[in-house]
Amino acid sequence: NAGVTQTPKFRILKIGQSMTLQCTQDMNHNYMYWYRQDPGMGLKLIYYSVGAGITDKGEVPNGYNVSRSTTEDFPLRLELAAPSQTSVYFCASSYPGGQFFGPGTRLTVL
Amino acid sequence: AQSVAQPEDQVNVAEGNPLTVKCTYSVSGNPYLFWYVQYPNRGLQFLLKYITGDNLVKGSYGFEAEFNKSQTSFHLKKPSALVSDSALYFCAVGSGNTGKLIFGQGTTLQVKP
Lengths: 110, 113
Known about the structure:
- The structure holds two protein chains of two kinds.
- Chain A is mostly beta strands.
- Chain A has strands at 4-7, 10-13, 19-25, 31-37, 43-51, 54-57, 64-66, 76-78, 87-95, 98-101, 105-109.
- Chain A starts with a strand and ends with a strand.
- Chain B is an all-beta fold.
- Chain A binds chain B through residues 4, 31, 33, 35, 40-45, 48, 50, 56, 58, 90, 92, 94, 97-104, and chain B through 9, 32, 34, 36, 41-46, 49, 51, 90, 98-106.
């Protein structure tokens, strides 16, 4: 099993550009999550999904969108990138009693 | 509302000495408590969890944590620290059936030779 994979690893965007962060898991987990990690702030939940076709907002959803058409994939969309979205983004999937994390995507918006 | 506090931004300890990384939580209902470790430029790795049962939980790499309901704490401990334990440690709490976790802000552990 590859676990949770994320692409790209790094990306630089200009203000106003859009992009999609990809996340795939091969463990057949129903629950998936997107977090952002800012220095000294821990991880903040952006969106989560409890199964294909079902998504819900977390703590910091503004400026992001998600979809969940399959169990495996949970892409995160940034429509109009802003400097405040400069962060490291982690995707995770959940099994009973814990979460597996992907390696992260480091995004810089200039 | 659920919350997690890690009161120390950084913990410094000498190699071979015992270490403690503190975590307190606030949650309605029964908590699910976790510790994760993050090495530089890596994702989070699971260390241990408390769901129910014995208050002393043993995890990966010789770490353990004690669930204390009266003090609402879940401190991470290790009897003898290694330089390779130096990393960023996160405490997290969950409840309910969505699997969502609330993370503390993290504590940097520095183990010096």
